Predict the structure.
Amino acid sequence: MIEFRNISKVYKMGEVEFVALKGVFITVQKGDFISIMGPSGSGKSTLMNIIGCLDTPSEGSYYLEGKNVSGLTFDQLSTIRNRKVGFVFQNFNLLPYASAYENIELPMLFNGKKGAERKARVDELLEMVGLAPWAKHRPTEMSGGQQQRVAIARALAMDPPIILADEPTGNLDSKSGHEIMEIFSQLWKGGRTILMVTHDPAIAAFSKSTIRLLDGAVQANGIPN
Amino acid sequence: MRMQLLHLYWNEFRKRQKKTSLITFAIAWGALSLLLLMSFGRGLSNAGSVSFKGLGSTMIMLTRGQTSKPYQGLPRARRIHIHMEDLELLKRQIPGIAMISPEANNSHNISYRGKESNRSVNGVYPCFAEMRSQIPAAGGRFINDLDQEKARRVAFIGWNVAKELFGDSNPVGKEIRIEQTPFTVIGVMKKKQQSSMYQGPDSETVYIPFSTFCQIDFQRFLDRIHIRPADPRDALFMENQVRRVLGRKYRFADDDANAVNFWNTIRDYETGAKIFKGIEIFLSIIGALTLLIGAVGVTNLMYAVVKERTREIGIKMALGARRRHIVMQFFLETFAIFFKGTLWGTLIAFNIVSLVNLVPIGYEDFGIKAYLLRPIFSLDILIVFLVVLCVLVFVSGIFPALRASRQNPIEALRYE
Ligand SMILES: Nc1ncnc2c1ncn2[C@@H]1O[C@H](COP(=O)(O)OP(=O)(O)O)[C@@H](O)[C@H]1O
Ligand SMILES: [Mg+2]
């Protein structure tokens, strides 16, 4: 489903070049639940962003569902981000001036889904993350755990096969963190492919296997949990 | 674009609207300036052409002159006078003369029941009235063909003459004396605005039939001949024809511009109209520049807004927003600011124009009031306004919107 062939990413900051990923080969099968671990600055987020088509590799090829992604236009990549992947961020990244309902609805608006269909889907997702009574509330009126659950619901709006979660529990207390992980487990059992960045071995324990990064290179791959 | 998306954009815009109030004011001010300058400019133009027509709209006026170059052995600086016979000559030789009238004048003593005044008395044909925009006030008339034919002792008087001799009472039917000869007043000139004149304003003048004038005041020469061409576009052509016909008779060169003098109101009117149009356009440009300053302000603000919302743009991109979704949001915000400002500006402008138009102006207020107090909104002004506005909205909105949409999603998401 996801295949990296010799992916490198170099950031240029003026004269200075910084190699964030070097020669990465990874393969992710449909239905995998993989943790990505490694010290800060080792390239975990960069890896996730490339998988999610938010960023493009400097070198190498990335195949998503068998198709080479390099060379696609911004709008084509937008379509992939919209339909194939759902992002969950450490800091939730909800829109501050939109209610929980509107945040969850947003990916469907970029796709032109019909009104009735959208409403049914948002209601279903709010129910699933246990936030039906919070539909009209703004992110600032919710706890971190609640916000992250809205973010998960939003990531699922277009029913994407892949969930990308970059330290989803990093800003949460352990109780909320475990609630989030319960949801991920459910999603995985439902057949979704999940990649998750984490520092916490207790969180990584929810996943099936682990990839370890060090200084932009894969140090170990497929460590079963 | 989905309604719900517009709704979200609207909310995001509304939450920050306080920051836009100053710039909205700038746009309102700009729109107000542009509208007012255009409508006052148009009022100016109109007043210009109205008072220009006070002298007469389509006519060529001919007066005596002096040759400026030798011709067929004759020296320069010969005086050329025009005579009554020339009238017939011109009529015979130049087709396309719709009206022609002689004019002779002299200063005479006018009296009515002991009140006396020294006025210019002019002998003219009936068609003079139309060429020189002389309309009788209600209850009176101008000189007619029968007056001319029978050399009747009738007079058509300017409104200031009427005021001086008759005060507020009606002069029509009363008998005045020109020197010692009795004349019946048949009409008083309706008030008009007149910006150009040759011997004093028409309001100060007494008109009598040309035939009658010849009886009371013998003159060898005519003072003026007034001609109206059938087609105003022939004005210049006709001027040249008249010069050629008279040149043959009085022996001066066809291209001698000073042998006889012309006052071509048709040509003057066109030049005058062009000058006023020029002023109008100049004022409009100043107005447009004022609005442009507002528009530059909007662009600046929008760049700041784009920066401030970098993270939100990144979030939308991560969720699958296409370029046009981002472009549209910022473009619509620009539009909203312009719309609000323009609405205010237009409302205020319309009110000012309506109020100013309520100020009364008299016919003697030739100058400043007639030019400044009759601003006009017309369809073409509104169309120009809308076009300028559309161009400014587009230009000031598109660049910030494009910058927003061209951001790198990663950079946008990392932005603090
Ligand atoms: N947009 C960027 N510009 C410059 N340097 C970057 C950028 N994104 C990441 N980096 C650098 O690349 C390295 C890897 O970043 P990241 O993938 O975020 O690491 P991790 O998520 O493992 O902490 C870091 O040292 C970071 O400073
Ligand atoms: Mg990171």
Q: What stands out?
A: Chain B touches chain A at residues 2, 4-5, 8, 11-12, 15, 311-312, 314-323, 325, 409-410, 413 (CB under 8 Å). Residues 265-308 of chain B form the longest helix (44 residues). The CA atoms of residues 22 and 297 of chain B lie 10 Å apart.
